[in-house]
């Protein structure tokens, strides 16, 4: 959701969420990797220039050496190889970066590049690099006060997809702080609309073995075995990995929540809201019982479902999120369109009610406009 934060397993850290109108979390990972390459490349060129100048009173700031065709060709090849390797580790498909130019501008290097998904340009970016390659400037602001300041632009209206029976899908990680923030806003709306012709379906974002391979390569774990023990369930029969960003207890709670959804869907939102308010990954293995008792969920049924099919339910959600290219928590999809608004209950109510061809009368009720703060971190 634009302007909000989310969790993304591609980096293991929080980021500006880019679902809908902004950059996707995979795109943010690409930019970070690209920046490292560009700064290193420019630093190598600038170092050669600065060494030619004597130190002392006569020394001057390093100057930009214009990029030659050969330089750009070499840079594109390096970027292409690095990103191919990086994307392979993250399991991303159809995502590429194309460096379009590197020129001298205002005493620095101006680097342009396109972010592409499935061959289509999703976003074009420009960034400045200092002459000595030590500083990267993702944004610049002109200081010529004789020029008129830019006026804020009203956001373009978003086309609302309507249906007689709207369908809402909520993709989260059960202990992602921003996912829980969205759940806490959606829960009251789902309960308000429980008797209407709308479905609000939860799904969980999980990953395969490539998650651990990426985490090990980035230094978050020393080995695949360490990552597996802390974050994954491995099916001994098939060798399939199911991994969760916030650890094995998050994975187990995902499975329990899917069991509650399967057996007692009308109690699901109240159960999740109770878990969000009471439990952490450290205590959820006992705390979930308190949440279940509070909202009247059948604990025995949950335990039996968890033992017999919990991991199969989680595996199905992992396959769904992967097939849809969804890795940012939360991602909310309304009638097939990614939601990009706020996370208060009133925000979600307005969006869900707008998805009806004929909104029900309960849509006239006003819910909370406040958004609970997200606690925790992305890693």
Describe the secondary structure blueprint for this structure.
Layout: E1 5-8, E2 13-16, H1 25-51, H2 69-90, E3 95-105, E4 108-117, E5 120-129, E6 136-137, E7 167-172, H3 177-192, E8 199-204, H4 209-217, H5 224-231, E9 232-234, E10 241-243, H6 248-263, H7 268-278, H8 284-295, H9 299-323, E11 328-329, E12 331-334, E13 337-338, H10 345-354
Parallel strand pairs: 7-8
Antiparallel strand pairs: 1-2, 1-11, 3-4, 4-5, 5-6, 7-12, 9-10, 12-13
Describe the structure.
- The protein starts with a strand and ends in a 25-residue tail after the last helix.
- The longest helix is centred in the first third of the chain and has 27 residues, at 25-51.
- The strands form four sheets. Strands 3-4-5-6 form a four-stranded antiparallel beta sheet, with helices on one face. It has a four-stranded mixed beta sheet with strand order 8-7-12-13, with helices on both faces. A three-stranded antiparallel beta sheet has the order 2-1-11, with helices on both faces.
- 41% of the residues lie in helices and 18% in strands.
- The model is unreliable at 10-28, 34-62 and 375-379 (pLDDT under 50).
- Strand 7, helix 3 (177-192) and strand 8 (199-204) form a beta-alpha-beta unit.
- The radius of gyration is 24 Å and the shape is globular.
- By secondary structure, the chain is an alpha+beta fold.
- Helix 4 (209-217) packs across helix 5 and helix 6 packs across helix 9.
- It has ten helices and 13 strands.
- It folds into two domains: 5-51 and 62-137, no CATH class; 167-207 and 244-364, 3-Layer(aba) Sandwich (Glutaredoxin), CATH 3.40.30.
